[in-house]
Request: fold
Amino acid sequence: MKNLLRECFGFEFGLVNVMRCLLTCGVVGLSTMATAQDRISTEESQKVARKLVELLGAPADAQLTISADTDRGEGYKHGELGLLVLPDQKLSAAAIEAAKSEPVPVGQLWLKGISPVSDGIIVPVAKHRKLTVTEGDKSVDVTVCLLGARKRDGKLELVLYGQGKEPITIAAMEPDQSTSTAPIGVTVAKETEETGRIELTLAGKFKAKLFVKRAE
Reply:
């Protein structure tokens, strides 16, 4: 696997090959999340992150303006599934604590082969912000969620946006005692044979849990 990734992330390969390696070689397989986590190296995630951010550009209908930090992302892969989380360049505990009803930028969540879940139900594809990487006769489909933090009824929430004005899912944010210095830390775990849990540590002070299912 390491040799394959090294070849695929070489500068002589195009964007489709980069994406195919990260996201078709593999978010962590839902049936093996707990035992077969395969974290992507910092160098590999940086290369892919730069390509993805360039691909996304600045959508006119984006609900949040996020300046993704492509140097500090975290990614996982397994089988046909993959994820990459990129923090906003200005993400901080102070910014999250100061959030009000209008969300403040947190980052981007890129997915391949899995979908966010809202209230136990998979988010419909029509609500996904999907992009297709195409080069010649090859293509890879990816989904990006824009992440924000807001305060509602005095409680902090992590909101995920796809298409449309409303969040596609919402997760409670809780205090975290982590000593992590990463703007966003990521762990993944198996829930059932078809569902998984993504746990995000935000600015070393907050945490939130997201649930996903294999895409239909």
